[in-house]
Design brief:
heterodimer, A: about 500 residues, two-stranded antiparallel ribbon, 21 helices, about 75% helix, B: about 500 residues, mainly alpha, about 80% helix
Chain lengths: ~500, ~500
């Protein structure tokens, strides 16, 4: 298999899986086998590219010329490779988890759920491997639309209203701002290719740069920069596997991934550094980190707390990108990976608690460590990784982000990163702490309270274990990823 | 031999077939005959487009009479493309018509229906193909009169009122056009478009020529339902039989927009239209207002058919805007949207036709839960709606892309912002229907509905899938549109 074929297959495999899953509506076991097999196949395909890309290859393939001079084109570069590898690996874990969760919860419309999931992965792969801005935009929208039925899965009034917020914000920002930015770039430069050093230098200048940056950054609503973050907490009405993979990894990471892509390959670091009136975005990202964390502190619903935590963590990546320095970009890219593993673990745990004990609020979870020890340990590991403590992967992202801030002379940002970390501890740590060291609140636990171990279904536990170990492994084995990502900024 | 006479055949075929329908009388036979005729028309239209693309402009002297005495049919890329749009919609709608018309039109009037349908097709094709300004009026009247009848055949009694309203406004429109052409004839002494184009620059300071362009703009603007001349459209679309709505929505207004393009660029020439007359400002105002008002009003409609009708007014605004920008990109945006919008609205109105066939109602609240009982029909609505919004991989995206590109190229910032804003409003009105169809509990009647029959679904999905196909592969649509735009703009003196 040539790298080019593998690149195209990464899109085709999940696309083909979707109708196949649909055909197996009546045979759930076979249907889930298809999902698992597809996930495995996709991961194998993506990893087959990994060695080539690490060696410096950038396989590309043109699918079709949609607009004159503007083909739908895929090209694998280090950042996209990393994102695709993370997303496709976590899809396997998440599929195992989904089976346990969806069956344990007796969810309806499971076939539709798995179809949309496959399509969302197809969109994610497309975003990761997009060879130009048009392709990225197209798959970005595929991702938005394919996740809408997942967000509204429950179909009740609350889900529909959340779906309205979700689709409203994501479509309005992408069509209203991002599309304009893309077409503007196209008319100004005559190309939408991702090129090292950017394409805008010499074509756009003065205050226009600031406006264009605004259109891109708020047009990429999936990066959840405040005030266009509201869709993310709204999306939490979805079944937990959706929140775990899509709204902690695929969708939001597609957003910040696009931000980094635009900063590095459309604007170019030098151009962005030289441009005036672009620093405001750095402050917006900083504000989102702090405000998001403070809101997270005040949430009692666990999934909403995690969602606001994601909002704030995403802005670390935006902040790193906007530093527009070598270490900032490397830090952003690493944080993208590390946060993915940490946050998916936390969501897996939240879902496991919901399935096993029907608890959704933080205040109900005192003493949860006694009935669900494995899940609570998983939660602890995820939390520590997000906070950025060794020996967990989350440390590296923050390390390089701090380095980048010092490098750029942005001491205020150093302070923001430190403050953000303290807030992290405050809103995450109480949960495992009270889980292990507090007595269960009898009034809340009520008749649900059970003595002894009462863990989530086995598939859920497997998933939690895998991603927790992943957090640990990333601390020790992040060297290759680092080497590869460094190539983005030092060609 | 026959290739040389294709231009005449394009019009004569449905024209002769129409009275034959009356003679045949038997509903099934008439349908079969009319279907074959529309398919033959489509074959002719495609053949003509291929001829034009291969060999350039086709000039055909009707009856062998040389212009300026005789009537000249003149086909370039622009009208060849319009012919294909009209003929293909007519051909695709026919299989749908059999059961839908039998359901919605009284049995003893069905043969008249098809007769009128073919006449309407004749008129629309004639408008597109002719190179003579007065002959255009004749075809305009043929298409208009037959469409009044078609609308009046609607089941609801309000169809009569709608048809009457359209009759009054349509007649005013046609009359205004005729007055405009009359002024031009007085000033130049010719009715042939090419001759007109040559002579107008010499008389362009005459008040009557300025009056002529104003009369023509208002006259054709009425037929094209350019805001604020759209008042006839919502009622006409709403109460006409489903097939008629789909056919007219996809073709009639498009042909009128084509006439505006033809008159402004070929007859008056871009220098006069945009240089001497401040047409850019006028059209931009009308197009922009149409986009906003149409989309806004659509959000608050209680009837899905009327909702789509208002959306059409907004979409016509896009075409007018492309025309107003006047650059090659702008005009190709307008032309490509003629095609793309025909696919969207044709498909969407057929979807509503499927629903009418089963439930008899297109009120939004009666669509509650229809997503469960008619999954294929509802899915078609979603895809068509996404195209209307302009989501990537649909035709709507292509139209919007080219239009915004044209606006930005020429520095019309506010126009680009308006287009985007109008698309955002489209999300609101499309999703209103989607939410009702999928998330509301069905009433007992809706829950008992069966999926529409295959014969209705197939043409519907054909148009809906065309939205995706031509949203991915634009080499034909955008390619032809751009060539057409070059020909139109280059054709001016």
């Amino acid at each position: 298999m040539t790298p080019e074929t593998a690149t195209a297959l990464a899109i085709v495999i999940p696309m083909v899986a979707a109708p196949l899953i649909g055909l197996l509506d009546r045979q759930p076991n076979l249907r889930e086998s298809v999902t698992l097999a597809t996930a495995g196949l996709l991961f194998a395909t993506v990893t087959s590219l990994l060695l080539d890309v690490m060696a410096g290859a950038q396989p590309s393939v043109t699918l079709i010329e949609t607009l004159p001079g503007l083909p739908i084109r895929l090209e694998v570069e280090p950042l996209g490779m990393t994102f695709a590898a993370v997303a496709s690996f976590l899809w396997i874990v998440n599929s195992i988890y989904s089976i346990g969760y969806m069956r344990g919860h007796n969810e309806k419309n499971q076939t539709r759920f798995y179809i949309c999931f496959a399509l969302a992965i197809c969109g994610t792969m497309g975003v990761a491997f997009a060879g130009n801005m048009l392709t990225l935009f197209i798959f970005y929208e595929v991702l938005t639309l394919s996740t809408y039925p997942l967000v509204t899965h429950k179909g009740d009034r609350k889900a529909v209203m959340a779906g309205r917020t979700y689709l409203g914000i994501l479509l309005c920002t992408s069509i209203g701002l991002q599309l304009v930015a893309v077409i503007w770039t196209w008319t100004a430069t005559g190309t939408l290719d991702f090129r090292e050093g950017g394409i805008l230098a010499g074509s756009v200048e003065g205050p226009e740069v600031g406006i264009l940056l605004f259109l891109y950054m708020y047009g990429i609503g999936k990066a959840a920069l405040m005030p266009v973050h509201r869709w993310l907490p709204a999306a939490m009405v979805a079944p937990t596997p959706v929140s775990a993979l899509l709204h902690a990894v695929a969708v939001v990471k597609a957003g910040v991934f696009s931000v980094v892509k635009v900063v590095v390959y459309i604007f170019g670091l030098d151009f962005l550094n030289a441009a005036e009136n672009t620093s405001w975005l750095l402050y917006m990202a900083a504000a989102t980190i702090l405000i998001g964390s403070i809101i997270a502190l005040r949430q009692d619903n666990l999934k909403r707390r995690l969602a606001y935590s994601t909002v704030s963590q995403l802005s670390y990546i935006v902040l790193g990108a906007m530093l527009a320095t070598k270490w900032g970009i490397v830090g952003s890219s690493l944080h993208l990976v590390m946060h993915a593993f940490g946050k998916i673990t936390l969501f897996f745990c939240a879902g496991a608690i919901m399935v096993a004990s029907h608890k959704t609020e933080v205040s109900q979870m005192r003493g949860i460590g006694r009935t669900m020890p494995l899940t609570t340990v998983g939660f602890l590991i995820g939390s520590l990784s997000i906070i950025g403590l060794p020996p967990f992967g989350g440390m590296w992202g923050k390390w390089f982000l701090l380095l980048g801030s010092f490098d750029a002379g942005q001491l205020a940002m150093v302070a923001v990163l430190i403050l953000g970390t303290i807030l992290n501890i405050l809103y995450l740590m109480p949960i495992p702490f009270h889980g292990f060291f507090s007595k269960p609140d009898v009034a809340v636990a009520g008749h649900h309270h059970q003595e002894g171990i009462h863990e989530a279904p086995i598939p859920c536990l497997i998933a939690i274990t895998v991603t927790s170990l992943g957090c640990l492994a990333l601390f020790f084995f992040s060297e290759p990823a680092y080497e590869m990502l460094l190539r983005i900024v030092t060609p | 031999m026959i290739e040389a006479h294709l231009p005449a055949l394009q019009v004569v075929l449905p024209l002769i077939a129409a009275p034959l329908c009356v003679l045949l009388r038997h509903a099934g036979l008439v349908w079969l005959f009319a279907t074959l005729v529309t398919w033959a028309s489509l074959a002719v239209a495609i053949a003509l487009l291929q001829q034009v693309l291969a060999g350039g402009v086709i000039v055909y002297e009707l009856g062998g009479w040389e212009p300026p005495w005789g009537i000249e049919l003149r086909i370039d890329e622009a009208n060849a493309f319009v012919l294909v749009i009209v003929a293909s919609i007519a051909a695709v709608v026919m299989p749908f018509a059999k059961r839908s018309v039998a359901d919605e039109v009284e049995a003893d009037k069905i043969y008249l229906f098809y007769s009128m349908y073919l006449l309407c097709l004749t008129g629309l094709l004639g408008i597109a193909i002719t190179g003579d300004a007065f002959n255009l009026f004749v075809f305009l009247e043929i298409s208009s009169l037959s469409s009044y009848v078609l609308i009046a055949l609607g089941k609801d009694r309000r169809a009569l009122h709608a048809a009457y309203q359209y009759l009054i406004l349509g007649t005013i429109g046609a009359t205004f056009y005729l007055i405009g052409v009359g002024f031009l004839y007085i000033a130049t002494g010719t009715l042939n478009m090419v001759d007109l184009a040559e002579r107008i620059p010499q008389v362009q300071d005459l008040q009557s020529v300025h009056a002529a362009i104003a009369f023509i703009l208002i006259g054709i603007g009425l037929k094209a339902a350019v805001f604020p001349l759209h008042l006839w459209l919502p009622n006409a679309y709403c109460y006409a039989p489903s097939v008629v709505t789909a056919f007219l929505a996809a073709t009639a207004t498009k042909v009128s927009i084509y006439v505006l393009l033809r008159v402004f660029f070929t007859v008056f020439g871009a220098d006069f239209t945009f240089g001497v007359v401040p047409m850019t400002a006028i059209l931009m105002l009308l197009g922009g207002a149409g986009m906003l008002v149409g989309s806004l009003v659509a959000i608050f409609q209680t009837n899905a058919k009327r909702l789509l009708a208002y959306s059409s007014i907004a979409q016509i605004g896009y075409m007018v805007l492309g025309l107003a920008i006047g650059s090659v990109t702008g005009v190709s945006a307008a032309i490509v949207h003629l095609f793309n919008h025909a696919m969207m609205k044709g498909g969407l109105f057929l979807v509503l036709g499927c629903i009418v066939f089963r439930s008899g109602s297109t009120l939004v609240r009666d669509l509650a839960g229809v997503g469960k009982s008619m999954p294929l029909t509802s899915a078609a609505f979603v895809v068509g709606g996404l195209s209307l919004i302009g989501v990537p991989l649909t035709t709507g995206f292509i139209s919007k892309w080219v239009l915004i590109e044209a606006a930005l190229e020429e520095g019309y910032w506010y126009a680009a912002v308006l287009v985007v804003f109008s698309s955002l409003l489209a999300i609101a009105y499309v999703w209103r229907v989607v939410e009702v169809a999928y998330f509301q509990e069905p009433s007992r009647e809706v829950a008992a509905l069966r999926e529409a029959p295959m014969i209705l679904l197939a043409p519907t999905w054909l148009l809906i899938l065309a939205n995706i196909y031509f949203g991915v592969d634009t080499s034909v649509t955008l390619g032809v549109a751009e060539q057409a735009a070059r020909t139109l703009i280059g054709a001016g003196p």
